[in-house]
Amino acid sequence: MTEALRTRRSSGLIVMSNDVSGGRPFAPQLLRTSAQEAAERLQLALDSGAVVGTWVWDIVADRLTGDERFARTFGLCPKMCASGMPLKKVTASIHPDDSVKVYKIIEDALLSGVTYRYEYRVRHLDGDYRWVEASGRIERDINGEPVRSLGILLDINSRRIAEVERDRLNELLRIFTAAVPGVVYAKDLEGRMLVANRGTAQLIGKPPEFFIGKTDLDFLDDKDQARILMETDRRIMQNNASEQIEERVNLPDGSAAIWLSTKAPMVDDNGKVIGVIGSSVDVTARKKAEEAVRELNQTLEQRIEQAVLEREQVEDALRQSQKMEAVGQLTGGIAHDFNNLLAGISGSLELITKRLSQGRVGDVDRYVSVAQSAVRRAASLTHRLLAFSRRQALSPKVTDVNALIGDMEELIARTVGPEIDIKVVAQPDLWPALIDHAQLESSLLNLCLNARDAMPNGGRIIIETANASLDECVDPDHGVAAGEHLSIRVTDTGSGMSPEVVAKAYEPFFTTKPIGAGTGLGLSMVYGFVRQSGGQIKVESAVGQGTSVVMHLPRHTSALAPLDAEPQSVEEPAHRSGETVLVVDDEPSVRMLVTEVITGLGYTCLEASD
């Protein structure tokens, strides 16, 4: 008697075995299929496409045979696979994460099923896992016991990869839409809602599960509105072009609103339109505001014209004020120096007169030397003031910036006043720069005056120089090449500026000083000079923490040009006599002195005032 024994192997798979001692095998005709059935299965395999193998599993003998494609798919030897292999050896190629599920599906099919289909990953000869779909059928004997299974393998690797990517993109889209304010959504080609954010649910007045997977006609109460929305979506997908439109929407509370919607076709990697995406914002309040603005346009235009006229008048006044302010600041700053120089000259002359009247000429030479020294200092100062006040195109020269700042230190100190402490921190071996001396002096003085105004109760101004690369200091502006630059930093301990004020600091006529205390042109003039010199300027400030203004000037690699020096004494020419010289000067004292000197040289002089 034949006894069908079902035993559960360690793998969890139910297999069949027969005890044939004294019994009889099952009828062979039960294992045969008709030619029509075989043809149908063959046609099924051919029609399915992407077939990568077929197999027959003799369940009773636990021998699975497969064609060459099946063997390649599972990474098996084709000959061994053709002659038959145990199921366990074949399924060893299945991904560990999928094997338990595969055995469970086979077990269920052996117990009660007829057909089965499942997807899993299988390891190829190259070691990579690929997705396949197995479709099989269980054949049973007259007692209903499983005896054989036939099936085919389909390559679904590309599809599964696409599904994973789709799921990933859907999750990203879900996260994105949840984070974006307003209304954000995506629909498929049929207009079914794929994903939507919280704003969409609030607009519709129902939870996402109510409208996801449905069209506007399915979930909107106003069918006319739904048809208009869907027609717009279809037009955008057909034209494959984005649009920005205003849509009237009926809200859940019964009120109406105007929404500004931006819609665009959603395309796949091949550029094929697969849906539409959109975002909308409520512009009802804005539309009302626009209407109010239109009503005020006429009076507003008149106000603007009046404001422009007043601004032009103020700008003219400020320009004149700037000229007067510059003169006042300079003259006030150097008045003490000139008074000292004049005191030295006047005192020396008085002492010379007194000693000569007393017949004491021993100290006359010393007094003359003091007076001449004061005259040379006055001439040097006058020369610097003339250079500072030039109004002409830039005349760049290779400049030792440290030396220039050193020469200006006393002038700056006199200009800002005794309440301000001046400190210069110069880097040794500072690179030279090709700049206009006078404009740099003007810029430094402007920055120091601004620093002084920020410290009404006194403080400190630090002038620093350093070598640096521009891309290490600030982000290069357009047209300013990165590279080696030298920096001049003017720092004060004043009240500082807010970020809003710093953002407007370079604007002409922008000032935070009281009326009459500044024109707002100083820093813009410095900005123009630095940019014209191929450099860059930056303001660093915080309220209550002072301000630093940094000028970055390009390094110049040529040799230094000699700096302007004080007038040098020259060798007197040989005295001549018998010639006549016309001396013309509108200042009588100067004309008299020049005449005396020339007459002393043996010339005959004629004087004229003009």
UniProtKB/TrEMBL annotation:
The entry lists its GO molecular-function terms as: phosphorelay sensor kinase activity
Please state what the protein is called. histidine kinase
- What species was this sequence derived from? Pseudomonas cannabina
Annotated keywords: Coiled coil, Kinase, Phosphoprotein, Transferase
One Pfam family hit: PAS_3
Question: Record's superkingdom?
Answer: Bacteria
Q: Which InterPro entries match?
A: CheY-like_superfamily (IPR011006), HATPase_C_sf (IPR036890), HATPase_dom (IPR003594), His_kinase_dom (IPR005467), HisK_dim/P_dom (IPR003661), HisK_dim/P_sf (IPR036097), PAC (IPR001610), PAS (IPR000014)
Q: Which ranges carry the Response regulatory domain?
A: 580-610
Q: Which residues form the PAC domain?
A: 116-168, 243-295
Q: Which reaction does it catalyse?
A: ATP + protein L-histidine = ADP + protein N-phospho-L-histidine
Name of the top EC class for this enzyme:
transferase
What stretch or stretches form a coiled coil here? 286-324
Query: Is Phosphoprotein included in the keywords of this UniProt record?
Result: yes
